[in-house]
Design brief:
- This protein is an alpha+beta fold.
- The protein folds into three domains: about 100 residues, Sandwich (Immunoglobulin-like); about 260 residues, Sandwich (Jelly Rolls), CATH 2.60.120.200; about 375 residues, no CATH class.
- It is about 10% helix and about 30% strand.
- The chain has 14 helices and 43 strands.
- The strands form seven sheets. The chain has a 16-stranded antiparallel beta sheet that branches. A nine-stranded mixed beta sheet has the order 30-28-31-33-43-42-40-37-38, sandwiched between helices. Strands 2, 4, 5, 6, 26 and 27 form a six-stranded mixed beta sheet that branches.
- A hairpin with a 3-residue loop joins strand 42 and strand 43.
- The radius of gyration is 29 Å and the shape is elongated.
- Bound molecules: fe (ii) ion.
- This is N,N-dimethylformamidase beta subunit.
- InterPro entries: Class_I_gatase-like, ConA-like_dom_sf, DMFA2_C.
Length: about 800
């Protein structure tokens, strides 16, 4: 295939003036490519809008570069560099396994044997494997000894193999933890092989084996360690792997399950018994250092294994009791690591060019390195120039929802989810990026996807090409831009309307806290800032409480708990984000019981709502429904006439349809919608100033966290909570929040060259929110006691009209 021959990424999302950003490019085919740094202004190719717009930037890095191919060595594993102690004559290998894809289809992308505990390469060495038929297999040099019994998927098994070089005796054990009636008994395989182990100078590997040493191969340089190519990436969990340097008896193997005893004193040996301590080569304890990328070896040689591509930790072990749900409180029950053959934490490519952003003259904006070839290949590597804290250059700032971009990074739902057509009420239309990613699983999926073995992806790295964070990319859900390219609708509008603004990313606010935002008069969000760190929500809360102004431009925000994995801190900020989908919320997969706590920070994952941070408390509204067929529009409510907020509607007639046009679904109210709900955190003085109540189809459904049992009437044609509410409330010290409550909303801004009533409304709000000093005080009559439960659940429009004694709309 000759598409997507250019892909790339940068080492940073946000770069400060004066700092350097590095770019990594895979140019697979063309001899050379051209680089231009551009300001990216619009990314939507919809012919009803302004089309793709960029602005070339004079940059020292612009020019033509020699092309070279770079590949991603995906799939997670652990390794220990070669060492003499691994060069055993006899051995015992043992571990617990919970495989998820022990037998794969011959057309599976990585069909073949999977390594468990190996010191083996190219028919030299020894190791425990699952072979391509899904059976446990011991390898000694070129010899294969198998049980011939398939290993059950999603079930714990104890596995062990012994080899006595003196006698040639071999025993291979395969012991399911749970035995069902009618399961055949699996006897240990005993055989004899007179052979001397030939030791290759390769690393010991966990969940993989070394395919070859290729120090001269340029494509092997992006493997870790560089020049060592691993294969046989295992799918599933491993717990308590051990290597001993003699053939243990079955009873000794049982004792060795306990592993090494940490700490040598006069009362303890390093092994379960004094005698067993002498034969330990390695005894890894995966329950130690769960928040790190190192597997602790508690044996005498301290062969700590380096983890590559961030497998899942904090996973329930073979001994999980079901009594503890937090790995921090019972680490001994969390001795499993879950490996996947499509994990990726860093493409580890070599840098092709780098740009030092000048100290002055380059505004804080959305940028990209535009890569092109003479043959028409094209890719963009997005980044943002972000001022240093204290060196803000504008009163307005756009908070770029980069955690949400990472959550959706390289999303495969359209290609992989059963029923994607039902979801969107049409045939999903793919982009070339979707096709490319389907063929290149090593580029990794999004947090909406499942791994190739069906388990949920909870880790996303930005050190890889992320083909969904691109201009000109339409998403199957919207059949329009989504996330990054959708947020460019807002950027195009800010540029067209002549506003000056800064940008910063979720990373910046997470790490810098309030200092990052406190000098701005107003913060503007993206269209769908769904995934957030706790530090970010803290900063936003402190900001609005101190008089800051927040314009929430979309919907379904502040929904999922995210954390950046601390194991990547030395590579920079925010490299890897983690999110676990737990017991509620709209989930494309569900974490297994006992696996709700993040491996990086140890915090409880899932929805912020179930951590006691209701979505509606951040900006006044919260997610209530979603649907992906067509968008609708908003109507003003009588609340919009309240003098506390009437200024926002200057120049807009009361009966105007607000946003019955737009580039996303044809209207301003669509895709995902938020509503006011004082019982879920909306401040009791929130004014719902416009609503789309009653204007959505049966494709729009109430969110599942809002109901306890299934019933008819949950869709947009019947349920009163299926609607979007545009809402305003004041915050203390002259601050305020305006929430526009629809993901499609920003798609209406560019309509008719930005001359429309959505544009007018947003301009009115932004002009007021960006003013210096506190917002004008509300009238004295607005100051009064309000209960939170004193809430009429009927649609806001009806409620307001009832309160004013007006007739209800037809
Ligand atoms: Fe979302």
């Amino acid at each position: 295939m000759s598409y997507m021959r250019l892909t790339g990424y940068a080492d940073k999302f946000g770069v400060h003036p004066g700092d350097t950003i590095k770019f990594y490019v895979n140019c697979n085919g063309p001899a050379e490519y051209k680089v231009e740094i551009v300001q990216i202004i619009n990314g939507d190719t919809n012919p009803r809008g302004p089309g793709y717009i960029d602005k070339p930037i004079e940059a020292s890095v612009n020019g033509t570069y020699k092309g070279r191919a770079q590949i991603i060595h995906g799939g997670s594993y652990g390794y220990v560099p070669d060492a003499k102690a691994f060069h055993v004559e006899s051995f015992t290998l043992q571990c617990w396994i919970w495989p998820t894809a022990p037998k794969t289809h011959p057309r599976y992308w990585k069909h073949g044997a999977q390594g468990l505990v190996t010191k083996w390469s190219e028919d030299c060495g020894y190791g425990l494997f699952i072979n391509e038929d899904g059976c446990l297999e011991l390898r000694i040099n070129e010899h294969r000894i198998t049980t011939g019994v398939p290993v059950r998927d999603h079930a714990w098994h104890f596995c062990a193999a012994t080899f006595d070089a003196a006698t040639g005796d071999i025993v291979l054990y395969h012991e399911p933890q749970v035995v069902y009636a009618l399961d055949p008994e699996i006897a240990p395989v005993e055989t004899n092989l007179k052979v001397a182990i030939a030791h290759a100078p390769v690393p010991a590997a966990l969940a993989a084996y070394v395919e070859k040493l290729a120090p001269e191969d340029p494509l092997a340089r992006s493997s870790k360690p560089a020049g060592v190519v691993f294969a046989g990436k295992y799918n599933g969990k491993i717990d308590s792997p051990r290597i001993c340097n003699r053939a243990l008896s079955r009873a000794e193997i049982e004792m060795m399950k306990a592993g090494a005893q940490p700490g040598l004193t006069e009362r303890r040996n390093s092994g379960p018994t004094g005698k067993l301590s002498e034969c330990i080569v390695a005894a890894w304890n995966f329950s130690s250092g769960i928040d790190t990328l190192v597997c602790k070896d508690e044996g005498p040689y301290r062969f700590d294994a380096i983890l590559v591509n961030c497998p899942n930790r904090g996973m329930t072990g073979y001994n999980w009791s079901g009594q503890n749900f937090d790995w921090k409180h019972a680490p001994q029950e969390y001795g499993a690591i879950s490996f996947h053959d499509d994990d990726v934490d860093d493409a580890r490519w070599f840098s092709d060019f780098e740009w030092t952003v000048p100290e002055t003259g380059v505004k804080s904006r959305f940028y990209g390195a535009k890569l092109t070839t003479a043959d028409g290949d094209e890719d963009f590597i997005p980044f943002w120039v972000v001022p240093r804290v204290g060196q803000e250059t504008a009163k307005i700032a756009v908070m770029v929802p980069t955690i949400s971009y990472m959550a959706y990074a390289n999303e495969h739902v359209a290609c992989n989810a059963g029923g994607a057509e039902l979801f969107v009420y049409r045939v999903p239309i793919m982009q070339e990026q979707n096709m490319f990613l389907s063929e290149h699983r090593e580029y990794g999926g999004s947090i909406y996807d499942t791994h190739t073995d069906g388990t949920g992806i909870s880790i996303s790295s930005r050190l890889r090409p992320i083909l969904s964070i691109r201009p000109k990319y339409d998403h199957f859900l919207a059949q329009a831009p989504w996330q990054y390219p959708a947020d460019l609708h807002l950027i195009y509008w800010l540029e067209t309307m002549g506003y000056d603004y800064d940008v910063f990313t979720d990373e910046d606010i997470t790490y810098d806290g309030l200092a990052r935002i406190e000098n701005y008069n107003v913060i503007i969000t993206g269209s769908h800032p769904e995934h957030n760190s706790g530090a970010q929500l803290d900063a936003l809360h402190n900001y609005t409480q101190r008089g800051g102004r927040l314009m929430y431009m979309g919907a379904d925000a502040w929904y999922w708990v995210h954390s950046y994995h601390p194991g990547y801190a030395e590579k920079g900020r925010g490299i890897v984000t983690e999110m676990r989908r737990c017991e509620s919320g709209i989930r494309t997969w569900r974490a297994d019981p006992g696996e709700y706590y993040h491996q990086g920070t140890g915090e409880l994952g899932g929805m912020w709502r179930f951590r006691g941070r209701y979505l509606h408390s951040v900006a006044g509204v919260g997610m209530s429904s979603e649907g992906f067929d067509v968008s609708s529009y908003f109507s003003r409510t009588p609340d919009s006439l309240d003098e506390r907020v009437a200024w926002a509607f200057e120049g807009i007639g009361y009966d105007e349809k607000l946003g019955n046009f737009g580039l996303v679904g044809g209207g301003a109210a669509g895709l995902e919608l938020d509503i006011v709900d004082t019982m879920l955190g909306s401040p009791p003085h929130t004014l719902a100033v416009a609503t789309s109540a009653g204007r959505h189809t049966e494709a729009y459904l109430l969110v599942m966290e809002d109901f306890g049992f299934n019933q008819q009437g949950l869709d947009g044609t019947t349920h009163p909570r299926v609607r979007g509410d545009i809402a305003f409330h004041e915050t203390p010290n002259g601050g305020g929040c305006f929430a526009f409550s629809s993901i499609a909303f920003c798609g209406s801004l560019p309509w008719n060259n930005c001359d429309n009533n959505i544009s007018r409304l947003v301009k009115n709000v932004l002009d007021r929110f960006s003013m210096d000093g506190p917002l004008p005080a509300p009238p004295a009559s607005a100051i009064k006691h309000r209960g939170r439960a004193d809430y009429d659940p009927s649609p806001i429009e009806h409620q307001s009209r009832k309160a004013r004694g007006e007739p209800l709309p037809a």
